Amino acid sequence: MADKVTSQDVAARAGVSRSAVSRVFTPGASVSDATAKKVRLAAEQLGYRPNVLARSLLTGRSRMVGLVVGYLDNHFYPGLLEQLCQVLDTEGVNVLMFLAEDAEANLDQVVNDLLDYQVDGLVLASVTLGSTLATRCEAIGVPVVELNRSDGGQGLHVVSDNEMGGVMAVEHLIAQGRRRIGHIAGWEGASTQRAREAGALSALRKAGLGLYAREVGNFDKEQARDATRRMFNDAEARPDAVFVANDFMAFHVIDVLRYELGLTVPKDVAVIGFDDVPTAAFAAYELTTIRQDLDAMVRHTAELLMGRETSSRMITPSLVVRSTCGAT
Which of 50, 80, 171, 235 has a C-alpha 20 to 30 A away from that of 182? Predict the structure, then answer.
């Protein structure tokens, strides 16, 4: 193997000190434009790359954030995570992503692995950190932000006002004259699901109504399809509207209603989702939904990680009216 180019080699080629080379490759360090230009030219000529891991040992900062994602099937998460990575990149922070598909079983191991990388912070998207690991992270000074989740404790989180969103969804259905309103729930262990359903039930009570039907789709496409079949199995007692806990399930609900059961959306059944993922605007669906403000969620998550904010954030959602509820 060829000898590795060192910062001393770059310093000799550029005619500067080794500390000057270090400053050029250290974000935020003070260095003149002329020196930076000479050093970067010498580095390019020699094929030099700074040793980020070695620098982290000296500074105590890795400039890396660990990101744990429970699942990526939901179209909401790829867009959210892409924006988060872009924002952190502008801060000079790299993202190390781990997928914890069975969050209940292996989240502890995933987080332990991330901490071994000396990450400067953790973002948990669609998963919730247990109290033991949360305490460990706090003890070693690693900030943890739950994104689109809230465990109800004292930890930092950035989440939409899901209860308000549930109220908005059902109030819109009622305003369209719907009275037999069903709900296809997501995973019942998720704080987002519980809050969305609580808002829906509150809006129903206010209107003097009860929940007409309920099934669980667990944020899973096949389970959402099965839930739709069960809910609409009895032609004489079908709901005239359904609030689906997220858009990802709502697309599959609509497909079953239209192509298996022969129902018309929204004439026979109004459908409303939650998230406002890009597919919701496609002509094939034109889904009415509750929009989560991705820009605000990402911005506040980054601010918490960088220490510029210190309090959790609840972001106000908004209603996006398309054609699946009969109003445009």
Answer: 80
250 and 76 Cβ atoms separated by less than 8 Å? no
CB-CB contact of 253 with 184 (8 Å): yes
The pTM for the full model equals 0.80
Taking alpha carbons only, the member of 17, 67, 77, 71 closest to residue 42 is 17
CA–CA–CA angle 119, 123, 128 (5° rounding): 120
CATH among 3.40.470.10, 3.30.470.20, 3.40.50.2300, 3.40.50.300 for 62-159+295-315: 3.40.50.2300
Q: Express each pLDDT in 35-93 by its tens digit.
A: 999 999 998 888 887 655 455 544 445 688 888 887 777 888 888 889 999 999 888 88
Cis check for the bond before 266: say yes or no (omega within 30 of 0). yes
